[in-house]
Write a structure and sequence with these properties.
- There is one protein chain.
- This protein is α+β, with helices and mostly antiparallel strands and 180 residues long.
- It folds into 2 domains: 3-106, Zincin-like (2-Layer Sandwich); 128-179, no CATH class.
- Helices cover 35% and strands 27% of the residues.
- Strands 1-3-2 form a 3-stranded mixed beta sheet. The protein has a 3-stranded antiparallel beta sheet with strand order 6-7-8. Strands 4-5 form a two-stranded antiparallel sheet.
- The longest helix has 20 residues, at 3-22.
Length: 180
Amino acid sequence: MTPNQVRVYDSCHEQLKLAISLYDLNLKLSVSDVKISLNLRGRTGGQARYLGYMDYELRFNAQAIEEHIDFVISEIIPHEIAHIICRSKPSLGKNHDRGWVRVAERLGCSGSRTHPLPLSRAKSAVKHVYMVQGNEIKLGATQHKRLQTRKQTYSVKGVMGMRKIRIEPDMYSHSFKIHA
């Protein structure tokens, strides 16, 4: 674990304890009810998730933690904790409404809905390559799985000139039918 990741864990625990006491949620919420993940990718700085009865998850962007740790601690962590507090006590607010903004500001952040960090888009690690009439078509993992399980067909523009074709699995073999 990197020093910045340790700082995020420590800050989350401190800020959760503060928020629980500020909003008198000692009987409804404890620090142990909140799982902390540091593996969020893409342009999202953080995410608060409700996992079920009294279980929550705080997710933080790994790139933001390594490149913008001070902003994560001062803005993103209180922002996400405000979502958990409002979910635990709905009379305070929800989503990004005025009540939620008051909670977020009281926890020390600006209450802004978005962040200005220059984070990279998440890139799909796996591309599945299909050869369709001599042309290479790349599908992501989700599209590949749907195609393989025959749950969906795909249309591809421009493979055969300007015509639109449809790729669907052949029901009787492992090949694919091409519909022009």
